[in-house]
Amino acid sequence: MKQVRLGRTGLRVGQLGFGGIPIQRISRARAIRLIRTALDAGVTLLDTARGYSDSEEKIGLAIRGRRGLAVIATKSPELDAAGMAKAIELSLKTLRTDHIDLYQIHCLSSWEAFQKAISAGGALKALTRAQREGKVRFIGVTSHSIDVLKKIITKAPRVFDTIQIPFNFVGDESGISLWPTARKAGIGFLGMKPMCGGVLDRPDLALRYVLQFEGIVPIPGMETLRELRENIRLAREARPPDKAEERELLRIRRRMGKWFCRKCNYCQPCPQGIAIHLALGAGTLLKRFNRSCVSGWCRDIMRKATTCTKCGLCETRCPYKLPIRSLLVENIALFRKGLRGMGIAWDQA
Ligand code: SF4
Ligand code: SF4
Fold first, then answer.
1. Pocket of ligand 2, candidates 258, 264, 321, 329: which has the most ligand atoms within 8 Å of its Cβ, to mutate?
2. Which 3-state string (H, E, C) describes the chain?
3. What is the distance in A from the centroid of ligand 2 to the CA of 260?
4. Which of 81, 106, 304, 314 would be a feasible disulfide site paired with 267, CB 3.0-4.6 Å?
5. pLDDT by 10s per residue, the chain, length 349
């Protein structure tokens, strides 16, 4: 598989990375087999997070005896130094390693949050201390906001060694516009949601599209050996979409563009406190998270969405003109159906 240099980190990783969300849904034994097969095939960047329940733990078990093959990236949303220091220690313990290659601030949503992270008592303090102690090699950031990342890499290009943002053919305006600036600043680029969060019927085309961008490491979530082998095949083939595939991508983009939420959060704040970007992804919540998450925080998000008063404020702010009110209704129905299929009650306390 083609090797990619992760910007100024100098880390060289297989062009295809491994997203650690879906392994929450499978057994330890299956996850270990999957990750080891990935590593042996050259999928060396393993991305996980403190927030992905047992994903770090499964990766930690899988890399025993293979630590040298893996480039481990994990993350925490903590913005203060004490919280981040604790998160780093927990990650080291859970991942059973003495160092983490890339530690990212997870889901930085605003310039204010960035200011907090770089302030005297901010998360960056703990990250740089961990770096000096050899516990963390490089520091990155993840976000769903193009504006926030653009501002950070323009005004403070030396703070983060890598960025991670959704990068796919439907919402590609974000990643594509950011990529040249990031590249020029020597910042490594991890492509989140290369297959649009698992909601496509042609994930192969979606991945082929993203793989054509030189220097970007897409990190699709995978939970079966079949998915892994198919993605490895595409990465090894390393060819851009042909004419027929381009036409198909265009067709899907036109259809999906009408309702595809880019998770940019421009529609916020919602007076009801609804997490619109999450509630519009009921299919993803059901598909990517384990039973305990689905019956816990995912269900809370979808139940909260039922309090929508249909005021329409969010729709006036959405740059993609999504019909958020009707999409919420559709997503709630989809989620409820999914819960029934899993034998989980909607109303249960
Ligand atoms: S329409 Fe619903 S989701 Fe949108 S801002 Fe109003 S209450 Fe919130
Ligand atoms: S609904 Fe629109 S504004 Fe809100 S997160 Fe999705 S794409 Fe962005």
1. 264
2. CCEEECHHHCCEEECCCEECCHHHHCCHHHHHHHHHHHHHCCCCEEECCCCCCCHHHHHHHHCCCCHHHCEEEEEECCCEHHHHHHHHHHHHHHCCCCCEEEEEECCCCCHHHHHHHHCCCEHHHHHHHHHHCCCEEEEEEECCCHHHHHHHHHHCCCCCCEEEEECCCCCHHHHHHHHHHHHHCCCEEEEECCCHHHCCCCHHHHHHHHHCCCCEEECCECCCHHHHHHHHHHHHHCCCCCHHHHHHHHHHHHHHHCCCCCCCCCCCCCCCCCCHHHHCCHHHHHHHCCHHHHHHHHHHHHHHHCCCCCCCHHHHHCCCCCCHHHHHHHHHHHHHHHHHHHCCCCCCC
3. 8
4. 314
5. 999 999 999 999 999 999 999 999 899 999 999 999 999 999 999 999 999 989 999 999 999 999 999 999 999 999 999 999 999 999 999 999 999 999 999 999 889 999 999 999 999 999 999 999 999 999 999 998 888 999 999 999 999 999 999 888 886 555 777 888 899 999 999 999 888 766 677 889 999 999 999 899 999 999 999 999 999 999 999 899 999 999 998 888 887 777 788 777 779 899 999 999 999 999 888 987 889 899 999 999 999 999 999 999 999 988 778 999 999 999 999 999 999 999 999 986 5
DSSP letter for 240, please. -
Does pTM top 0.70 for this prediction? yes
Amino acid, single-letter form, for residue 151:
K
Alpha helices in 138-224 (DSSP H): 146-155, 172-184, 203-211
Between CA 113 and CA 273 the distance in angstroms is: 19
Q: What is the pLDDT of residue 315?
A: 95
Q: Domain map of the chain by residue range?
A: 3-248, 276-342
In the reported structure, the alpha carbon of residue 310 is separated from the centroid of ligand 1 by a whole-number distance in angstroms of 5
Q: What is the CATH number of domain 3-248?
A: 3.20.20.100
How far is the centre of ligand 2, averaged over its atoms, from the C-alpha of 56 (Å)? 29
133 backbone dihedrals φ, ψ, rounded to 5°: -85, 0
